[in-house]
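Holo prediction — glutamine.
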Amino acid sequence: MKYIFITGGVMSGLGKGITAASIGRILKNRGYGVTAVKIDPYLNIDAGTMNPAQHGEVFVLKDGGEVDLDLGNYERFLDIDLTSSHNITTGKVYRSVIDKERRGDYLGQTVQIIPHITDEIKEAIRIAAESDPGEGGPFEMCLVEVGGTVGDIESMPFLEAVRQMRGELPRSETVLVHVTLIPEDTMGDMKTKPTQHSVRNLRELGLNADIIVGRSGMPIGAHTKKKISAFCDLPERAVISAATAPDTYKVPLELEKEGLADVLTEHLGLAHRDASDEWYQIVSREYTSRIKVGIVSKYGIEDVYLSIKEALKHAGRSLATEVSIIWLDAEKFEPHHLDDCDGVLVPGGFGIRGIEGKIAAIHAARTKGIPFLGLCLGFQMAVAEYARDLLGIPDATSKEFGEGTHVITILPEQEGVTDLGGTMRLGEYPITVRKGTLAWALYGREQISERHRHRYEVDPDYIPQLEAAGLVFSGTWNNRMEICEIPGHPFFLATQFHPEFRSRPTRPAPPFLGFVDACRKQRKGV
Ligand code: GLN
């Protein structure tokens, strides 16, 4: 197993995750099996209880791991399925070491950051790298992205573990890529000083960058590369320009042009290989039509819905349709806000804020024949809206929101759950798709598996009435309703699960494909 360590310099928010995923992609384009580990130096065990408005979306893995959104980027770019073990946090590492200490595993020793925490980190990296998460394997290389910025107190033990691994493994088994910022001064000149400082910080920790990826607004010229090369002791061709790309999926193409693949593989003692152009073909497809999708949400922050944005892009790209998103504030929603939209999407969420706006948007979509896709909370509110209007239950709602008639109720196994971390119905579960339905047309098979993250579900007592009133539950698992749809509507489909988490540029999620296609047809008046 070869390790590609990725560290960040100067500041966070440089797109280190996308750079790392893109590095993985250019290696995968050469036929290497690439997996990834993300290190998050916070004390939380996982991202499950973190506010998405601060940290971006909580991404859900196949095994139910609630993780940092970068893991989603790795899955999308590398077309692999990761597991919770691929997201290492300070919380997980310390918990494990403290558990071992209590068990007596270190009997007689003083338990310390070095070597106990660093050993634990190295072990966690190896276990994740070598575990076989199924499709996409076997793996020959593992990207290890160290979150945060070099110099942060939190990331010190992780960087020390990286230093030790670099020392223990043969030279050709590891490479260190440092992603840094190259800002421009007021005259438009590119400044290398922040990079010099962060490389010095790295050196103080005993780490030398083999490759520097400079993030900048404009491509980095030869003069700047020369300067970085001289100050940071690496060849000019190991200084890679990564100017902000119009589309993140095109970052691998930019890195290709810079010759990064050859520099990387040389470090890893591998012979030159030509790249396949499958990725290039997919991400460079020209658009022939354009649609606007309204997303009704309570957060104005786009990173909260990253996977939804990406899933729309994947579906759009494969249908040669450019999807632009109109963010609609659920709390201020009025039906005329949909006038400019070809379709409406109600995403997942928690809490009562904005609920009435979401229901109003679903009502408008249903009654005016506007294509609609509801996800998780969007599914639950589609059922509530239907019950309000067609079952004559004006106060139909979810038990999550207190007063009202609870057509959406708590999952039986969730009753009495008090811990909030990692206790929802999480991860992939099977679903049976009913033949002859829209869901069937989209998935084309009876047994599917999709990712979940919820505590509530359709109350089984209301299913017969809802169905008698025309709502079709086209995806189910025993008594659990997973997909609903309305026959005769141009496109009205909602899912209790989150199809966006399994969507890839190479394999768009079926509900998104159907939705984008319906929006496109609606627009064209086909
Ligand atoms: N809050 C709802 C539930 O827990 C929906 C969750 C979601 O949209 N992810 O069931």
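READOUT: The two ends are 52 Å apart (CA to CA).
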